[in-house]
Amino acid sequence: QVQLVESGGGSVQSGGSLRLSCAASGYSDNRRCMAWFRQAPGKDREGVAAMLSIGWVNYADSVKGRFAVSQDNTKNMLYLQMNSLKPEDTAMYYCAADFPCRNRGSLSETWYNYWGQGTQVTVSS
Fold first, then answer.
1. How far apart are the first and last CA of the chain?
2. Pairing of the two strands 33-39 and 56-59
3. Which spans in the chain are helix H?
């Protein structure tokens, strides 16, 4: 059973930074697609960033130039570095996996079949 556990959320002021981590377990190979999503109160869940391949990431327009995804396959970890945070970035952030991968790099939640419990990010102005 694939399990995803996020950490690293918190409260920061506008312009600040946070680094989210996602620990993945339950599978023994790399046939997975990984992504970050977020959901703000009263809004639909939206894709933030999805891994295409090593070094290639599909970012939502709203976070391009501010967020960066990295991964450490040796540790089964996925990271989301968030810089220049804005109040509109406030949301619950989720790590997601599609295993085995069917649509690498997609920002549509319909492709992802495993989800973490989420970590809250709050940005104050």
1. 40
2. unpaired
3. none
CA 46 vs. chain centroid, Å, equals 10
d(CA 120, CA 80): 13
For residue 33, what are the CA distances in angstroms to 71, 93, 105, 114, 125? Answer: 11, 17, 7, 10, 34
Q: Quick one: pLDDT at residue 26?
A: 86
CA angle, corner 119, sides to 113 and 121, nearest 5?
A: 130
Distance from C-alpha of 18 to C-alpha of 33, rounded to nearest angstrom: 23
Model confidence pLDDT, tens digit, residues 5-28? 999 999 999 999 999 999 999 876
Residue from 7, 1, 14 nearest 93 by CA: 7
CA angle in degrees (0–180, nearest 5) for 110-80-35: 15
Q: Collapsing DSSP states into helix, strand and coil, what is residue 83?
A: coil
Alpha carbons 33 and 96: distance in angstroms, whole number: 8
